[in-house]
Amino acid sequence: MLIFWITFGIIDLLIVFFFILLCIISLRQAPNDIRKHEFREGSQLDRLQKEILKDERFFDTHPKQELSIQNDGLILYADRFIQKHPRGRILLFHGYRSMAETDFACVMESYYSAGFELILIDQRAHGKSAGNWIGFGITERKDCLAWIEYLNHQFGAIPSYLCGISMGASTVLMATGQPLPSNICGVIADCGFTSPKEIISYIMKKKLHLPSRLLLPILSCFSKLFAGYFFGEYSVAEAMKSNTLPILFIHGKADRFVPPEMTIQNYNVCQAEKKLILVEGAGHGTAFLQDRETVEKEIFDFLNAHLSDA
After folding, report:
1. Are 116 and 90 in contact (CB under 8 A)?
2. In the 8-state DSSP scheme, what is residue 309?
3. CA–CA distances in Å: residue 310 to residues 22, 89, 161, 179
4. Strands (DSSP E) found in 213-283
5. Pairing of strands 74-81, 64-71
6. How far is the C-alpha of 71 from the C-alpha of 134, rounded, in Å?
7. What is the pLDDT at residue 167?
8. Dihedral sign, CA of 199, 201, 205, 209?
């Protein structure tokens, strides 16, 4: 009888452990707002914070329209920055536990001044959008398609691009594995990961110092039970099998959160037109800041080259 109760207690503890671990990795949390942190003067993050605080004036000086859709039983929100006669449309998907306003503050004015209508999206379980569980692109890729279809129906199927940073990059890359409307011209993916399984494994080993090979299969089952998906059920590599859209891959060589090797892998499996930009000395999501002139030129060369493809 004692052995039974000991075994029962161990099982209970393991269930609690895996649920807590899943919450640490995937449960909705308050965003990591870089504007509220203190950084070492002159560091890359300090420079990024200053750039964001300077460039976020865009949001106060340009009128916006709040949009919402329902997908997968969730109400999702975005802000639309309207152009009277847009050259095209860019859908912007932010990163893991981040904010659209900070992730894209430094590029909004450049995109808008070039004549693009901008759709700044709150991914599920972030910002105003509903949801408790982050899907690392697996569930969000379907939200991406829902946003495209909604925008085309409501405002016209003008030439459009998908742009994402960090988890947002993986979201838009995985979205290309679905049949997308013909007005989508291309994808810009900045510091995306290869798959939820691989980035979660990386986080468990490097950040949490846990044996991912042993724990990940069980944790993935908990994810299916509570969040609705297995970590390994989809990947960028799977999406690239059917993708035909041109893709601009960007990554900082000094990224310590998502290894640049993951973007190199994504680039290598992509069979469509593609280009890879690796920025020396850039950390996670800071390639544009580290070498703004080069990255901005590559982005606009890409946008201008494919505007007529849709």
Report:
1. yes
2. G
3. 40, 12, 10, 14
4. 247-252, 274-279
5. antiparallel
6. 15
7. 98
8. positive
Q: Which two tokens stand for residue 206?
A: 């490097």
Q: What are phi and psi of 60, to 5 degrees?
A: -90, -15
Q: What pLDDT is attached to residue 4?
A: 55
Residues with Cβ within 8 Å of 184's Cβ and at least 6 positions away in sequence, in order, are 148, 160, 161, 162, 245, 310
What span, in angstroms and rounded, lies between the C-alpha atoms of 195 and 167? 10
Q: What percent of the chain shows pLDDT beyond 90? A: 76
The predicted model scores a pTM of 0.93
Q: What residues does each domain of the chain span?
A: 42-195+234-305
Which residues, other chains included, contact 58 with Cβ-Cβ below 8 Å and sequence gap of 6+?
105, 108, 109, 112
Of 59, 24, 53, 25, the closest CA to residue 37 belongs to: 53
Class for the domain spanning 42-195+234-305: alpha beta
Asked if residue 148 lies in contact with residue 156, where contact means CB atoms within 8 angstroms, the answer is no
pLDDT tens for residues 133-146? 999 999 999 999 99
Q: What is the pLDDT of residues 26-48, one digit of tens each?
A: 999 988 777 777 778 777 777 77
Residue showing tokens 């340009």: 62
Give 211's strand partners.
none
The set of residues, in sequence order, having a beta carbon less than 8 Å from that of 244 and lying 6+ positions away, is 272
